[in-house]
Design a protein that fits this description.
With about 250 residues, this protein is mainly α. Helices cover about 75% and strands about 5% of the residues. Strand 1 and strand 2 form a beta hairpin. The longest helix has 30 residues.
């Protein structure tokens, strides 16, 4: 048994006994080992399975239960239609003169704000589609719907397939999830332009694009910066992974 696997066994025993009361040192120790596994060009399958088992315990303790994938996505899609698409289509029947935006009345500004809220709700409810596309492209399985750290819906990945997937593919899983926010807003923008010469979706897509581009360019590799922050994290891991691969 490898030293890393021994450490994972110790961590698993500690985590299993008290999942919601894990010392910060244990968490740091575990995630350091996970980073090592990610950088390994040929990770040990036993280490991957053990790390995935620990991660699932920590995940459930922090974020609660995971809902079944297909029925939950179906409900979310319907909620996105009811709470976002239908109100947005109704609001498009209230025309806005975008070429006289400086003279808009208070009512016009409220229509714009409500349209923008509809776009944002649509991005929230349809966002998991981006991760689903990323899953199909990279081979990383998704096992259900859960909340993220900001209590928004997201898809939980199967950590065995995640750690078994090389970094060059893992990064695109997050990129596709992140860019889907831009694509979703852009779809609203195209529909709005066709039906009512409305730029609300275009404004939303531009803001999301600027944020995603800023995160990528800044190189911030943290989950607090959303999917593109995780994309940056995997890019950094990829560089170490390629160096380790070249040494073999």
């Amino acid at each position: 048994m490898s030293e890393r696997l021994d450490q994972l066994e110790e961590i698993l025993a500690e985590v299993s006994s008290s999942p919601k009361d894990i010392p910060p040192e244990t968490r740091k120790r575990f995630w350091r080992i996970v980073r090592e596994i990610k950088r390994d060009p040929h990770p040990d399958p036993d280490e991957i399975r053990k790390a995935a088992e620990i991660r699932d315990i920590l995940f459930e303790a922090k974020r609660g239960r995971t809902l079944p994938l297909a029925p939950t996505l179906a409900v979310m899609f319907l909620m996105g239609i009811v709470l976002s698409v239908i109100p947005y289509m109704y609001l498009l029947s209230r025309p806005l003169d975008w070429f006289s935006i400086l003279t808009w009345s208070l009512d016009s500004w409220w229509i714009f704000i409500l349209r923008f809220i509809c776009v944002f709700i649509g991005v929230a409810f349809f966002y998991p589609i981006g991760r689903l596309i990323g899953s199909k492209y990279t081979g990383i399985k998704v096992v259900g719907v859960c909340r993220d750290d900001y209590y928004e819906p997201t898809l939980k990945v199967d950590y065995v397939t995640f750690l078994s997937t090389p970094p060059p593919k893992r990064k695109w899983f997050y990129f596709l999830g992140g860019i889907w926010t831009v694509i979703t807003s852009l779809i609203y923008g195209i529909v709005g332009m066709i039906l009512a010469m409305d730029f609300t979706g275009i404004v939303g897509a531009s803001l999301f694009f600027l944020f995603e581009a800023y995160v990528i360019v800044s190189g911030q590799a943290t989950y607090k910066r959303g999917e593109m922050g995780l994309f940056n994290r995997e890019r950094k891991i990829e560089r170490a992974w390629r160096k380790n691969l070249a040494k073999q």
